[in-house]
Each structure stands twice: as structure tokens, then as C-alpha cells.
Predict the 3D structure of the following.
Amino acid sequence: MKKIINKIGLALIATVFLLVSCETEESLNLTQSDPVFELDMPGISSVFLNYSLPDNPAFTITWKDEVTSSTTYEVEMATDEAFTSPRNLGTATEKSFSMTVTAFNNAINEAGITNFSDVPVYLRVKAGESISNQVLLLVTTYPVNPASIESGLADGDTFTLSLDQNDDNAIEIAINDPIFDSNLGVTIEYYLEADTETGTFDSPVEVAMVTNSKSINVTHAKLNSVAQGLGIAPDSTGKIQLRIRSVITNSTNETLERIGDPMTVTVTTYLTVLDLSTTWGIVGSAANDWGATPDLPFFKTDVDGVLVAYVTLLDGEMKFRENNDWANNFGDNGADGTIEAGGANIAVTAGSYKVTLNFNDNTYSLESFSLGIVGSAYNDWGATPDFMLEYDQYSDVFRGIVTLLDGEMKFRMNNDWAVNYGDDGADGTLEDGSANITTTAGNYIVTVDLNNKTYTLEQIDNIWGLVGGAYNDWGATPDAQFTRDWSRPFDDIWILRDVTLIDGEYKFRSNNDWAVNYGDDGGDGVLEQGGANLSTTAGTFTFVLDFSDPANPTYTKQP
């Protein structure tokens, strides 16, 4: 029985061996592969092109070529799977190819792509007539071309500016920039910059800047100021250049700058201030100690030959003279209000006056005149003297820089209620004896136009002063307060005239407080916040602070 079983087992083993041998031979014939010309799949399928690493490799691809004997390969890209419009990216002599961030980004932009996120880019390799398979990359790119102007500004434009449209827009630019709508989470700043007609934008003037907005507006006042700063005189016509510069900042604070082509435009400017100056002034013991300082000036009025001065006089005498000189002077022989050449001194009592000098009929008049602010917002409705506004001869208005409280105020003449002004409609128009004007606490430039019975309250952050051992023992008394230079109303320039200092040091600070203060570290006339103390010898000086460029404020000191 054992023998029979063994024989059967041997027969079965032989049969299995034959079957396995046949199957093995047949399997070897089926797995034999054909030669391939094939791209390997890249290690990544999403590519972020970082503009801050322009020379880094954007991608590397490799391939097998068992079909051709080529030693040169062409690498192509397309934006569609059908390779409708293939673009050559370069050649390779090895079976691999790399491309820098800059080169790949440029190639995609040159293909006319206008979106920047998940841009489909297909790659393939050619060897003669043979073409490999293709691989797909999803690429995030960045813009190469600068932002363009859709409307509002073009090369050759002409702008005729007007004082009557001072606060209206002279330029309204609409920007076309595909990156703006890309949803990449970047910040985009657009700068409108200016230079002279022949300038190269080495030191451009910033006209306007917006952040994450495709609109830039420029008022008549701003363009007028820029044009004059670039050398076009008031009330004249000239040419300047304008351009758009954009700065993209990503989430890691890396920036990309793009600069558009400059455009040359023609600008007609206007005079921003009135020329009310005259050669006449008031001299005397009541005014300036008979000429120890310049005479108190007269200004033109809207009537030829009639001059006016707003002055504070002392008990004493005065006369009128031209050019701070006695060659041409007038007094009053009969104290009858008429003037005679070389006439007698005119006696006055201390006070604030409006002095009118009329050369048409050789008369003069002195009228008590002061315009001030009174109210709970300033002096508890007159518990102390009103805040006096000063005449601005450059604009024919009254102005003042004042700190107000939460409360109410009015304007009144001569610290008295006989003539007072409020605002019934809270519309900026003054009416005699009308409603109180409500205020919130802060610093203000106050302007009153008595010709049109209007006023404005413009809130400002800083009122500048001079402090130091050379003036007020570093704040033991209030700082010497600057006022704005009204001859340059659209520039942030402050002036302090005829302040008397002793030997010592000083600084400039805001609002009688040390939170914001400036000194000069290098002694170069450029101010630094918290900078070094300035030194002076005793004397009387005029100071000018220029904050027109907030990043580089300057000061001047004149005896």
C-alpha cells in the first residue's frame, strides 16, 4: 500500500513541476517592457514663486529616454493640456532641467496669464520629433509688469489749477492691477510720485499714497503745491513728470517694488496767498520804541489807496512812515484825523486797534478792535481774557492756534458782548448773537473770515513750542509757542518770531509735554525725535520748524 501511495506522489510532483515550468515561461514573455521616453513625476505639484528668492530653483524635472539617442532636449510649457501654444523654456544636454524663480515667473507672465494663484502649467520634453509625457504644476506667481492707469491720468495731460477749487480733485486716477484681486493676502501700496520735467526720479516728490485701494485722488491744492515745489512759479504754466510706483508686501514682510513709466503733464499753478503787503507802517513809542524794531505793517484792502493795520499799542505816540525810514512820514498837526507830511505825533492810549490809513482823502482812524474766543471751552465765559485771533495778511482772515476743552464757545469783539457771533445751523456760518458752538477737547487751528462771516475749526495733533534752560528753565513756565507760517498754508511749517533766549540749551516739543520732542544729534539742521539738546548764546532769534517731510523735519535759527 505504501508503494502505491509513493508512486502516486511522484506522479503528482512531476505534473506540478511541468505546470509550473510552463507558467513561468509564459509569464516572462508577458512582462517584457517597451523602451520609454518619459518624464518622472516631480516631487511637488504645487509651486510658490517667492519674489524675495529670485535665483532659487523654482522646479527640477528629470526623465528617462530609452527611445532616442538624442544629446539635446527641449523643455516646453503650456497653460493647457493640449499644448495649444507651447513655449520653449530652454534646452538640456542631460536628462534633467531646472529653472530659477525669476525665469519661470517671467515665462508664465509672458504667456499672458492674468491670475496669480494656482496657475496650471504643463511641462513636457522634446527630442527631435519624439515627445515625452506631460506633468502638471499648480504655480503661484507674482506680477512682473507695473500697475497701469485705467483712467484719470495720461502722458500729455493738461491741468489748469484754481484757488476756487482748492479742495476739489484735480486728478482722479483709477488703477488697473490684476494682483489687486488675486486673494493672495498681500498688502499693496500705490504711490503717485512727481519730478521735474527733466528729472530722473532720484529724489521723487510723493504726491499721494493709498493702501489696498485702486483709486488715487489729488486736490488742486496738493498738485499746486507739488508743481510749485518743483519750480513752476505761481500763476504760471510748466511741465512736470508723474509716475505710479507700487510696493507689494507679503505675510512675511517681503516686498516687491514695481515702477511705471513716467508721464509728462502740463500744470498751470495759482497763487495760494494774497499779496496784501505794503511799504507803510506805524512807528513810535506806542508801537516799537521809535524804530528799535521794524514798524508795525499796513496791508492793502479791496479799495485802492486805503490801508489797514491790526495792532496792539501802548500808551504813547505814533506816526506813519514808509520803508521804515523818515524820508516819507505823516503825522496829524491838528489832531483832527487828517494827515500831513512830517506832521505832529499822534497820541494814543494802550489797546488793540484797527488802524485805517486813507491816502485818497489823507485821513486816518483808530478803532478798538480785537476778535477772540470766549466760552466754557476756553475761559469759563470770560473769567480770564478771551483768546485773541491774529490777522493773517496772506489770506485776509483771522487765525489762531488754540487748545479747547469739551464745551461751548463763541467769537466776540474786544472782550465784550456788544458784538458776538455764534452759529445757528452748525454749518460754519456766523450770525450775530446766535447759538453757541459746541467743541470737543483738542488742539485747533481756528479761522474766521469776517468778509463772508464763516469760520472753521481744524483739529491738529501738535502745537509746537521751544523749551529749555535758555528760555523757561525746562518748562517751569509755558513753552514759547510757534504759530503756523500762513504764507505757506499747505505746508506743515511753523514759525516763532523774536524770542529772547539766554545762554543755555533748548529743544522743541509738542503741547508743552515731553512725549514728542526733537533735538539735533548731528548739528546738521535735521531734527531727531528725542535728539540731543541744542545750544545757544543769549540773543533774540526767529525759529522755523519744517515738517513738510515728516520723516526728515528740519529747523532754522535766525538772529
Observations:
- Residues 1-28 have pLDDT under 50 and may be disordered.
- The chain has three helices and 47 strands.
